[in-house]
Write a structure and sequence with these properties.
The structure is a single chain. By secondary structure, the protein is of the alpha+beta class. It has one domain: Gcn5-related N-acetyltransferase (GNAT) (Aminopeptidase, 3-Layer(aba) Sandwich). Helices cover 19% and strands 37% of the residues. The chain is built from four helices and ten strands; from the N terminus they run ββαβββββαβαββα. The strands form two sheets. An eight-stranded mixed sheet has the order 1-2-5-6-7-8-10-9. Strands 3-4 form a two-stranded antiparallel ribbon. Strand 6 and strand 7 form a beta hairpin. The two termini are 30 Å apart.
């Protein structure tokens, strides 16, 4: 399966992940720079959040391809990879969550391929997968130090469903990292039609 997703970037395609997924993950940098923490507020757009500036640093969550080995080819989950001119540059891992929503377990784009529509193309494929399964929507989590991701989800029609200030305190009791839960609801689109 190959899907060309964005006429602005004609070399961009998304495919079901193949046996090259593990090598692709181990061979790429998915880190991002943090220069501020957002102070998320329910009902407020990301651009309206107050920012707490920090000394810039690189953040990487440590992607383990073995964690998702059982997802490939499963009925209730999938792994898709994005390619720019046949080079793997991003991936999305999606599954059916316990609450009936699709859950984006992971979305990552390699550093040089950012701002080329890759993340949006991957989210579009996750949405297509979710709709084919007749799920009511998609959910995912990101953090207040990944403001680029927060802006992306907002642009793609996701709404904030919750904020968890304690989620990462077990890892670091002093952390200012906050979990933000985003939802893309499908039912409301049908009711509005």
């Amino acid at each position: 399966m190959q899907v060309v997703m964005n006429p602005k970037y004609p070399g961009l395609s998304v495919r079901v992940a193949d046996e090259g997924f593990e090598a692709y993950v181990w061979g790429n940098d998915f880190s991002f720079e943090v220069s501020a923490y957002g102070v998320p507020q329910m009902g407020a757009q990301v651009e309206q959040w107050a920012l707490e500036q920090v000394l810039p640093y690189r953040k990487c969550y440590g992607i383990d391809p073995q964690e998702f080995a059982s997802y490939r080819g499963a009925v209730d989950s999938a792994v898709f990879m994005a390619y720019l001119d046949d080079r793997p540059v991003g991936h999305v891992v999606v599954s059916t969550n316990w609450n009936g929503f699709a859950h984006v377990d992971e979305l990552a784009v390699v550093l040089p391929a950012r701002r080329h529509g890759v993340a949006k193309a991957l989210l579009d494929v996750a949405q297509f997968w979710s709709r084919k399964k007749n799920l009511p929507g998609i959910m995912l989590e990101t953090q207040n130090n990944n403001l680029g991701a927060c802006r992306l989800y907002e642009r793609c029609g996701y709404v904030m469903g919750g904020i968890d200030h304690l989620r990462y305190r077990g890892i670091d009791p002093q952390t200012r990292e906050v979990a933000i839960f985003w939802y893309r609801l499908f039912k409301s689109e049908l009711e509005a039609a």
